[in-house]
């Protein structure tokens, strides 16, 4: 059923799906597709999506627990559990910070680097598959739009610059 807002029908209100989605709806749909590709790749590597994200973040280098907790939007206690589980799997290790007996940084082990690289390759393939149907000129336009949106939003965060994961 279609509904109108001030005489206009919006894509969000259209059940037939014949209209192009508005930007907000398109971003929500795209986010869901990206999250699904990320989750599939994580599952294929016997990781939870959160563990996969931790590996991606740490692939850029060791991080302090407080920094990781802020980036993940969790309390340090919750992050401790995530790091404990990854450490038991041999993917990460806690490394003491020289000059500060209480501080530790979390770093990937050799197995963690291998797992992060394999996951990165898999998720990159999955994400490339999402844009594969686009003709080359539309892909260039899409990539430029993504870069502009990320730049305008101040995107950097804990995902690692230039990485698909």
TrEMBL record:
It comes from the Bacteria. SUPFAM superfamilies: Winged helix' DNA-binding domain. The lineage of its organism: Bacteria, Bacillati, Actinomycetota, Actinomycetes, Micrococcales. This is MarR family transcriptional regulator. It comes from Sinomonas terricola. PANTHER family: TRANSCRIPTIONAL REGULATOR, MARR FAMILY (PTHR33164), TRANSCRIPTIONAL REGULATORY PROTEIN (PTHR33164:SF107). InterPro entries: HTH_MarR-typ, MarR/SlyA-like, WH-like_DNA-bd_sf, WH_DNA-bd_sf. Residues 20-151 form the HTH marR-type domain.
